[in-house]
Specification:
alpha/beta, 5 helices
């Protein structure tokens, strides 16, 4: 998948990043039949993000993305196409994360999210916005933590654009 951005606000060298723990993740720009885009609002940390998460052991990217969409927005999805990948060097976590993003469409009826306890603690809320509203929500996010402000929001703005 085509690399579209490297997020490296702490100016980590490639050599240092290669010593970090590696995490593969998937994200989706999910659209419903009315052209609305799925976003998650992390209310306790005041930012928006795209649905997605880590690829688990033995899972491929597409299966991971379908699982994450079911869990976070309560929807089965069809993958339409690849958008691209973003690499993040997160020095604060000694983590090199590669996120693969896809364009997806809701398949069937929308259901209810099944958030993890940690997601519930962080105040996750699934919402559906127009494309312009989704871009504005991300751009206007005032994340109260470094992870949201320096990594998650810039990554997801890149994917939406």
């Amino acid at each position: 998948m085509k690399l579209i951005k490297l997020i490296n606000p702490e100016e980590v060298s490639k050599e240092e990043a290669n010593s970090y723990r590696m995490r593969k993740a998937v994200r989706a720009v999910v659209m419903d039949n009315e052209g609305m885009v799925a976003l998650l609002y992390v209310s306790k940390k005041n930012y928006y993000k795209l649905p997605g998460g880590g690829v688990e052991e033995g899972e491929d990217e597409i299966s991971a993305l379908q699982r994450e969409c079911q869990e976070e927005i309560g929807c089965d999805v069809d993958i339409i196409e690849e958008i691209g990948s973003v690499v993040e060097y997160r020095k604060i976590f000694n983590l090199k994360q590669v996120s693969f993003c896809y364009l997806a469409k809701v398949k069937g009826e929308k259901g209810e999210p099944d958030f993890t306890d940690k997601e519930k603690e962080n105040g996750f809320q699934a919402m559906w916005l127009t494309y312009d509203e989704a871009v504005n929500a991300l751009l206007e996010s005032k994340a109260t933590d470094v992870e949201g402000r320096d990594y998650i929001v810039p990554r997801d703005v890149t994917f939406l654009n």
